[in-house]
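Handoff note, outgoing to incoming analyst
You'll be picking up this chain. Sequence as last confirmed:
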Amino acid sequence: MTDALDQTAAETVRPLAVVTGASSGIGYALAKLFAQDGYDLVIAADTPLAEAMQALEGLGAHVEALQVDLASEEGVQSLRELIGERPIDALAANAGHGLGRAFLDQPFDEILHVINTNITGTVRLVHLIGRTMRARGQGRILFTGSIAGLMPGSFQAVYNGSKAFVDSFSLALRNELKDSGVSVTVLMPGPTDTRFFERADMMDTKVAQGDKANPEDVAKAGYAAMKRGDGDVVAGLGNKVQAAMAAITPQTVLAERHRKMAEPGSGA
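Most recent structure output, in case you need it:
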């Protein structure tokens, strides 16, 4: 009888997903998709998570939330400690920060924060969780990269450079893990209707005032690609065209085009 109960309990254990940057935007939309798909959740963000947590619990998920700055080693370790020894079935490494305006006019501490969030913190977390996935022989890792990583980002130089790293790193890691049972996917959105441009001090730019994608649509594209085991997905037809053109357009031309979209005051 005890063996039967143990077997039943094992069969009803829900998979666990970790989603960073989950308080709003693409991260929150990804967390909703995991919850609707039967996952329990550990969510993290550097902004309050109470509303997101309540909504996700309303979808039937058991949710643990941690407000933390993943730019720091201590922040990543605190998230790892919250997870403990539980097996992680999926990681959505979505946390990221933008930063607009000319590179030489940006405060250097803000530059470092973008690098430490988008690159160092992401790599540190994936290194910790990826090892446990490889040891189990299963797991899914979904990065949020960007089509910004495909072009020189005048007036977003650090951000675009950081996303170029994420886009490239994810595809390299995918190749390294191809026979491990762990899949790696990178979601590459374009401009999306989130607080990104507000937080990056870019509300006076043409790109911030232009058309933007719905974060739920972007998340669905990434989630579906992750489930299929695809290596990468560019969300949205217009962004697919832009990504394809970036591959054949001279970098100097791309930089000038980006300048026209992201230069302060370009939206006036």
